[in-house]
Amino acid sequence: MSQPEAGVDQQISLGKQLRTAREDRGDSLLVAAQALKLPTSIIESMEQDQFARLGAPVYARGHLRAYLRWLGLPESLAEQLVAPSDEGPSLQPSMRISRSRAWVERNALRAVYAVLTASILVPALWVATERSGLDPWRNGRSLDEAAPSAQVPAALPVAAPTSEHASTTPAAADSEAPLPVMASMTPFGGSKTEQGPSAATVADTDGWTFHFIGDSWVEIEGPNGRLEYGLLREGETRQFAANELSRVALGNVHAVELHFDGEPVALDSVTRANVARFTVSSAGEISGDPR
User: Where is the segment annotated Disordered (predicted)?
Assistant: First the structure.
């Protein structure tokens, strides 16, 4: 508390001093409230020494100093009410929670984000995986990858390999490990004049003749279904009647020699990335397969 001010009676309460000073000025409570822009209840509470109604100490001290200044009294009288070093009430926690509950509340939002992310990404990855395995030939396998060799239908005539490839027997082919056949623009195998069938053999053959000078993955279909499917080895030959084919796919097409009624058939117009896909008309004409 500050030292007594000159001309101020310390025996009189602070509120009574305020009321006496106001009455000496000839002003009413309403005039004082309007001058200080405060409710009359605050002015009346200060004059009745009911400073607790003014709220926190910082507000009570501010209202009191403003009133003292307006009345012309020393502002140091406000220190009799509240010292500057007074502190407000300390905050106390209203409730306590367990450590496990605090951990759950802190990580609940992260768990929700993780679940939402998984619910979006997992279906997207599944759809992408399924789409990547689709095959336009309905078998789920690329024409350029190795696969087990299919058995030749018993009803189809199979020409024996030429003398130049007589050494390549089924037993020898089975003893070797199958190698993957990949699409490439570089021709595989030897030249057609060295490994192809003889001119006499081709000239005496009617219909379609497929002679393989290298490994090739094939799928040959007829009007009634699939005729040939699988990996055909170097030196093998397949023959079909003129009206027996409807759709053909040849992987590693540079390793395949195709003849129709003894005449060579060019596949450049239906070849892309070393894979030929074409359809066959009843007249023996070929055209690109739209699939």
Answer: 159-200
